Amino acid sequence: MSAISITGLHKAFGAARAVDGVDLEVPEGEICALLGPSGCGKTTMLRLLAGFETPDAGTIRVGERLVAGDGTMLAPEKRGIGMVFQDYALFPHLSVAENVGFGLPRGERSSRVDELLELVGLAGLGDRHPHALSGGQQQRVALARAIAATPALVLLDEPFSGLDAALRASVRGEVRSILERAGVTALFVTHDQEEALSLADTVAVMHAGRIEQIGTPEEVYGRPATRWVATFLGEADVLPGEVTEGQVDFELGRLPIDPGFRGAADVLVRPEAVSLSLGSGGSGRRVEGRVVQREYFGHDQLVHVELPSGRRIRSRSLSHPVWHEGDRVHIAIDGPVNVFAPTGSP
Ligand code: ATP
Q1: Predicted local confidence at residue 283, as pLDDT
Q2: 54 C-alpha to ligand 1 centroid (Å)
Q3: pLDDT band at 181 (very low <50, low <70, confident <90, very high)
Q4: What residues pair up with 154 in beta bridges, in sequence order?
Q5: N or C: which end of the chain has fewer CB within 10 A?
Q6: Which has the closest alpha carbon to 56: 65, 48, 64?
Q7: Which residues contact 185 (CB under 8 A, 6 or more apart)?
Q8: Average pLDDT, whole number, for the chain?
């Protein structure tokens, strides 16, 4: 069963079509990321789901229940939805336990709070006040509060943006495991692709008020449905190519692929699909190029290579071997590429 079913959702603010025809299904127990650039409509989607905005058209169901649309507009507190706000919105004058238990029936409050603090790894900290907790701990309090009343759905608004980079990666894993153990369906909004790809079961990529593609992290990254998704997620260089029966020919070789059209094509190549080596040998066509720039990141490197045509391509690899500007290298494609009709064509 779906925890969220959205059909034909529209919301405009004056001339700005913030949400412009969205259909979305999130199965029960899944974590879905709404990922897109600033202004694409993510926050508006979250506010429509939570009940802070009224849709212009379309329907929203949480579980089987219609919460908005078709003349219905349930108040936020009637929707069975928990929220984690960007700034956590904890009550500063209440203790951690009081924050988590806020809104729970008195009789079951104390045992449920203990259970939740245990779940989020904060057992024993119930008497502290939010200001005496780290950012990551505050976030876990917010999460515990959001799932306290066993909602059908939890919405998280940019949940990691308040944390510094080092903390973000570890907290991400914790949040995922807490949501999994609580068995709750979650929808979170982010503009950070690494966050979306690493945390979500499904990623809905939003662009200009619409969902451009929805799929597993591997699908949206590895098989982007549109050129926009391909360039928004990760890095890609574009080389001209020619599609014939079941294959594409371009400067770096000939690959079996069927993009569903014939003729001129743009071949989008991710840096990790490009491998460099010294000398010849190996199988397949190899092209020689010259290293023109190297960016070193510690765990890996991005090497810019000039091809015989004068075009450039980037190769991402582990930090060894070390390439230098001017090195002559052989270039091979050893990963999937994506092929799109050239810009401007239908
Ligand atoms: P960000 O990542 O920057 O928060 P977003 O993807 O969440 O962006 P939204 O905040 O949903 O995007 O905004 C989508 C569009 O709707 C934008 O063009 C924005 O200017 C407009 N918009 C959102 N809320 C309002 C409002 N209350 N009044 C007028 N325009 C609005």
Answers
A1: 53
A2: 15
A3: confident
A4: 82, 186
A5: C
A6: 48
A7: 3, 4, 26, 27, 28, 29, 30, 31, 32, 152, 153, 154
A8: 91
- The mean per-residue pLDDT over the stretch 235-253 comes to 94
- Ligand 1 geometric centre to CA of 13 (Å): 9
Q: Kindly state the DSSP code that residue 32 receives in the 8-state scheme.
A: E
290, containing H or E segment: strand 287-296
pLDDT > 70 fraction of the chain, expressed in percent and rounded: 97
Check if 18 has its Cβ closer than 6 Å to any atom of ligand 1: yes
- Residue pair 253/335 in contact (Cβ under 8 Å)? The answer is no
Q: Is the pLDDT of residue 279 over 70?
A: no
- Say yes or no: CB of residue 44 within 6 Å of ligand 1: yes
The Cβ-side half-sphere exposure at 226, using a 13 Å CA radius, reads: 13
Residues paired with residue 67 on neighbouring β-strands, in sequence order:
none
pLDDT band at 135 (very low <50, low <70, confident <90, very high): confident
Task: Say if residue 229's pLDDT is above 90.
Answer: yes
Ligand 1 atom closest to the CA of 45, numbered from 1: 11
Give Rg (Cα) of the chain.
24
Distance 91 CA to ligand 1 centre (A): 27
pLDDT at 281: 52
Burial 126-157 (b: 16+ CB within 10 A, else e): beeebeebeebbbbbbbbbbbbbeebbbbbbb
Q: What is the 47 CA–ligand 1 centroid distance (Å)?
A: 11
> The whole model's pTM is what?
0.87
Protein residue closest via CA to atom 1 of ligand 1: 38
Nearest-CA residue for ligand 1 atom 5 is 39
